[in-house]
Amino acid sequence: MHPRPKLFHGKFRLGNISPGNKHSLRPFSSDNNPLPIVTELISNQHWRSLKTHLLDANATTLLQQLLDSRIDPCLTLRYYKWSEEEFNLSHSLEHSCMLLHSLANSKEYSKMRSFLYGFVKNENHISVSSIFHAISISGDSFCAGSIIADMLILTYVNHMRSHLGFEAFKRAGDYGFKLSVMSCNPLLSALVKNEKVEHMEYVYKEMIRRRIEVNVISFNTVVNGLCKVGKLNKASDVVLDMKAWGILPDVITYNTLIGGYCKKGRIGKMYKADAILKEMIASEVRPNEITFNILIDGFCKDENLSAAMKVFGEMQTQGLKPTVVTYNSLINTLCLEGKLDEAFCMLDEMVGSGLKPNVVTYNALINGYCKKGKMKEATNLFDDAVRQGISPTVITYNTLIDAYCKCGRMEDAFALRESMVDRGIFPNVSTYNCLIAGLCREGNIAVVRKLINEMQNKGLKVDFVTYNILVGALCKDGQSRKAARLLDEMVKIGLRPNHVTYNTLMDGYCREENLRAALNVKTQMEKERMWPNVVTYNVLIKGLCKKGKLKDANGLLNEMLEKGLVPNRTTYEIVKEEMVDKGFVPDIEGHLYNISGS
DNA sequence: TTAGGGTTAG
Fold it and tell me: Which H/E stretch holds residue A484?
């Protein structure tokens, strides 16, 4: 492809002289109007004859004349494409936009779409601002300009350029072009997918401010974006907004909100999810299979299998048939709890009801075997899946690779990595993370370095999990100070340390009995508005107890409760072994017996 | 153009 010339400012100028035509620049004269003949030639695709005619003019001048005339813009488009190809030239952005204006006026939308793709597909694309400038000066129909802007945004979004789509959305506002849901909804959705929720919020607010038409899909997408980043209160506010706009929440709105609470909600999240379900039913929106699947999976992830099974029963009472997804959630949970027999019973039930297990089902079961270290059975299941015509995915391989690493069979792990490539499945960051973690366990730092280099050569970026593994490895090796420096490195490359990162580092300091440093990490977390979780407290309480600082540990226990965090089984074990058994009675003793009994 | 399930780090 040839880079297009920059936009011509001011009046159109004669440029782009076609090769082999250097001696003659005379345009077609008005008294000897060749347009009817030229139109005829283009229409019949008599390109050779047209080329002969062009000896008297240049390609750009003819384009200008076609654009100035009232001829069918589709013919002008045909000529535009042919002349670019034939004379190895790029028409100006202004001419391109003039053509887009006439295509828009003739409602030739599909032709506009493919034409606009030309603006987007090149890596060295034309800047959004110059396109908008060209749109505004190359036609006087505000309506056509709006359509072009709208389609341009959609083109960016459809070709994975949502950042440019977002920029174009802002520009469209500057020029006052009126956009539609046809482009704004896909833009909202793309911004959510690319985790640009703040940009999504901006687009949403602007849609309302600019009085762009919004529909139930716009609201649902916004609710989904907010749920994904845990802004659940804001998501609920958007549901109120939509009602205020006279748009009633539908089953997707409610499912999204319930799913948001199931995944990101904190204490009592399932209670809240259940409350939304009740509100949904009260609003006469009927829950569907997906509603039940979300709830079942929510209870499963909340380690409440009995509640999940109850919802599973309720689903069937309501006359809804469980789907593959329903069974997969339950099978996965049973596998993670080590209840493989029950998982296989569930599989039988699933098959018995006419459902075919898919790769997710197999991945869950393979993982079940892997977690028990039953590699032979896991491999057999893998072969079984392949025989059934189910193609393994990168997750299937990662599951097996991780299991081999965890039982110290590094050679088998690396061999599997080779065989996945043979199958055309390429290792991803997680594959490398599993291998790196395995090598770290063995203390084989030299190979870890080699793997990280290899990843980078393959264009794979290390992620926060990679760093967390490395932080953990250094901490275990008594090099917590060095691990702390990795956190700075993470921030430098744009990765945000998460709870695991901080908790791992804190644990390292506690092992080194450097409690001051460990408590400083907690302060650092709080400064970053990353609120300590149960694991944070468990690590610190254990560290303080080991140093005999039982009163301080007790203080932290109280702080944890005041913050509404629920102590878990590990908390109980620490407190029992380190405090109660040593004759110290913590303030939360009664509370702890409740947990131990649960 | 909107909602659900499977792998890796504490």
Answer: helix A480-492
A236 CA – B2 C1', rounded, Å: 16
- Asked if strand B contacts A452 at the CB level, meaning under 7 A, the answer is no
A290 CA: nearest nucleotide by C1': B4
Q: Which amino acid belongs to residue A188?
A: L
Torsion-angle region of residue A565: left (phi > 0), alpha (psi -120 to 50) or beta?
Answer: beta
Residue A463 token pair: 């992620």
Q: What is the pLDDT of residue A123?
A: 66
User: Average pLDDT, whole number, for chain A?
Assistant: 91
A184, A207 in Cβ contact below 8 A?
A: yes
Cα radius of gyration rounded to whole Å, chain A: 32
pLDDT grade for A26, boundaries at 50, 70 and 90: very low
pLDDT at A591: 63
Joined tokens for residue A494:
């744009």
Contacts of A479 (CB under 8 A, 6+ apart): A508
pLDDT digits 0-9 by tens, A513-563: 999 999 999 999 999 999 999 999 999 999 999 999 999 999 999 999 998
User: Is there contact between A561 and strand B, defined as CB under 7 Å from any strand atom?
Assistant: no
Kindly list the structural domains of chain A, giving each domain's residue range(s) and its CATH number in brackets, ordered by start.
215-320 (1.25.40.10)
Rounded-to-5 percentages of helix, strand, coil across chain A? 70, 0, 30
Q: What's the full length of chain A, in residues?
A: 598
CB of A61 closer than 8 Å to CB of A105: no
Q: How far apart are CA A458 and CA A265, in angstroms?
A: 37
Q: Judge if the beta carbon of A200 is closer than 7 A to nucleic acid strand B.
A: no
How is residue A206 written in tokens? 């602007």
The SS3 of residue A321 is coil
The answer to whether strand B lies under 7 Å from the CB of residue A194 is no
Lowest mean pLDDT among A70-74, A99-103, A276-280: A70-74
Q: Tell me the DSSP string of A203-235.
A: HHHHHHHTT----HHHHHHHHHHHHHTT-HHHH
Distance between start and end Cα atoms, chain A = 68
CB atoms under 10 Å from CB of A268, counted, come to: 13
Q: Exposure pattern of A95-110 as b/e (b: 16+ CB <10 Å)?
A: bbbbbbbbbbeeebee
| Predicted confidence (pLDDT) per residue in A291-339, tens digit | 999 999 999 999 999 999 999 999 999 999 999 999 999 999 999 999 9
